[in-house]
Design brief:
There is one protein chain. With 216 residues, the protein is of the alpha+beta class. The protein is built from three helices and nine strands; from the N terminus they run H-E-E-E-H-E-E-E-E-E-H-E. It has helices spanning 2-38, 103-107, 187-190; strands at 58-70, 75-82, 87-94, 113-131, 134-135, 149-156, 168-173, 178-183, 196-214. Strands 1, 2, 3, 4, 5, 6, 7, 8 and 9 form a nine-stranded antiparallel β-sheet that branches. The longest helix is centred in the N-terminal third of the chain and has 37 residues, at 2-38. The protein starts with a helix and ends with a strand. Residues 1-24 form the signal peptide. Keywords: Signal. This is Lipoprotein.
Length: 216
């Protein structure tokens, strides 16, 4: 009887030891997970498109200005390189909105580091407008490709030709949806305002600069 009791006690002690080892292993794993969670979890994306950031979120970066292209005042396009990630991305600049910077300064800053902030936004880029299967534009019509999307509906907001430096906001509406576009309204478009047309467009990402500082 005493021998059996000793065996029972020994078995209970062994089971307790195994349980302690398992708990210790779980605690170590939990500690590792906690340490990873409290570490720097910043993930640097392979690109800087809007898919990497929530739409409209302000992002701060530093990179090398590789090229500056005048798009007709107040617009410009900047190509900025990120050496650590070995990528280059394109950014749009509106000089009317970004203060304390000008075309001359930027054109002379090629190769310098920029400290800047921007927002990435999804936008619908209008490629062509058609009526009865034909482009309404008499000149510079863009060929429709299979990659383009389309919407058929009533054209609104194109009641007059664009008179300023900034594009107009127009829309195309049907019973299911309304899509907005920014576009320079032409005389050809004014004729179809309020009428049913088909717009072919591309979904794009626009990286819009909101602040720039040139680093010495």
């Amino acid at each position: 009887m005493i021998t059996k009791m000793k065996h029972v006690v020994a078995m209970m002690a062994l089971m307790g030891l195994v349980a302690c080892n398992q708990n210790a292993g779980q605690n170590n794993s939990a500690e590792k997970i906690d340490s990873l969670a409290t570490a720097d979890t910043t993930v640097y994306p392979e690109n800087l498109e809007a898919s990497s950031f929530p739409n409209g979120e302000l992002v701060h970066e530093t990179g090398i200005l590789k090229n500056y292209e005048d798009g007709g005042y107040p617009f410009a396009t900047l190509n900025i390189e990120f050496p650590e990630r070995k990528i280059e991305e394109t950014f749009s600049l509106n000089l009317e909105e970004v203060k304390d910077i000008n075309q001359e300064t930027l054109s002379k800053s090629i190769g310098k580091y920029l400290d800047f902030s921007y927002v990435s936004n999804f936008e619908n880029a209008l490629m062509d407008i058609q009526s009865n299967g034909k482009s309404i534009f008499k000149t510079d019509a863009i060929p429709v490709t299979k990659e383009m999307k389309s919407i058929t509906g009533v054209l609104n907001g194109a009641n007059e030709v664009t008179g300023g430096d900034l594009p107009n906001k127009i829309s195309v509406s049907n019973a299911e949806q309304t899509l907005d576009f920014e576009y320079y309204v032409t005389e050809d478009m004014v004729k179809f305002n309020g009428k049913t047309i088909t717009v072919f467009y591309e979904e794009r990402t626009s990286n819009n600069l909101v602040e720039i500082k040139i680093l010495k």
